[in-house]
């Protein structure tokens, strides 16, 4: 089984959506990513938490086969994020970001992780993303995510990371902001020109777009009746996408298309509950069945 290393945030989130709210629940880009990706590949997690991070989540990750040798427990409080969504669930409004233990975090890739074949730089300070890139020897495939907080706050560092990765997985608003371009196709072209050969743009409930050279693939969004909390959808998407690529090693166009659908599958489950609640009971059989639903949903004959 291929190894997939992820660096990102592990967080305690307080989230409000039109359908409810949850205070101090586990979140974080690396948390959501690892859980989703663990359905496909062996995950190695590089992150930092404070003493207050719940042991229950660490046990759940271990039970899913996630390797926590790269997890640092620091004195101090875990990273905290407070956000709110209106009826447009595609846009998170950040109310508060407290870096806490991230302020002094310097990711150290354990020797056993340096040979990782697949690497995902989840949403985190782009300077930290670059330092992990420096430490991994010759990964077969690397990708990163980011968000508005870093696009506006650490643009130069982010551009440096983008020059060095094979793929970027970002949401629509972030792609526009990063490119300074409102048309999504032109924005994707501009992001491709920044370095990565693959650009995946997540469009929330409307699906996702994959751009590679002149090739474009459009994945549908699954019409869901119950959406409670979109937090972590992007990271779950990335987990399904990267996990599938790592599990098959298939870098053909068809392989990337399937990876985008597996990303969409994992995101669609995650939004069905707050935090990662839905993922606690999710089975591999349900994951593959939903892949079939996506296939049925988008299928039509060529005339
Ligand atoms: P998403 O998948 O885009 O909904 O990501 C949601 C997760 O991103 C939340 O669980 C937050 O804890 C985490 N997050 C929010 N802001 C930041 C940040 N500035 N750096 C790293 N992670 C963040």
Question: What features would you describe in this structure?
Answer:
This protein has 303 residues and is of the alpha/beta class. It has one domain (3-298): UDP-N-acetylmuramoyl-L-alanine:D-glutamate ligase, CATH 3.40.1190. The protein is 38% helix and 25% strand. Strands 5-4-1-8-9-10-11-12-13 form a nine-stranded mixed beta sheet, with helices on both faces. α6 (172-179) packs across α7 (184-193). The longest helix is centred in the C-terminal third of the chain and has 18 residues, at 253-270. The structure holds adenosine monophosphate. Adenosine monophosphate binds at residues 9, 11, 13, 27-29, 32, 81, 97, 123-124, 147, 149, 231-235. The site of adenosine monophosphate (AMP) has 18 residues, from β2, α1 and α8. Residues 21-274 form the Carbohydrate kinase PfkB domain. It comes from Tectimicrobiota bacterium. InterPro entries: Carboh/pur_kinase_PfkB_CS, PfkB_dom, Ribokinase-like. One of its GO terms (cellular component) is cytosol.
Summarize the structure.
The protein has eleven helices and 13 strands. With 303 residues, it is α/β, with parallel strands linked by helices.
Instruction: Tell me about the largest β-sheet.
Output: 9 strands, mixed
For the secondary structure, the number of strands is: 13
Per DSSP, the total helix count is: 11
Strand order of the largest sheet: 5-4-1-8-9-10-11-12-13
Low-confidence stretches: none
Shape: globular
Please name the fourth-level CATH homologous superfamily. Ribokinase
**CATH T-level fold name:** UDP-N-acetylmuramoyl-L-alanine:D-glutamate ligase
- Global mean pLDDT: 96
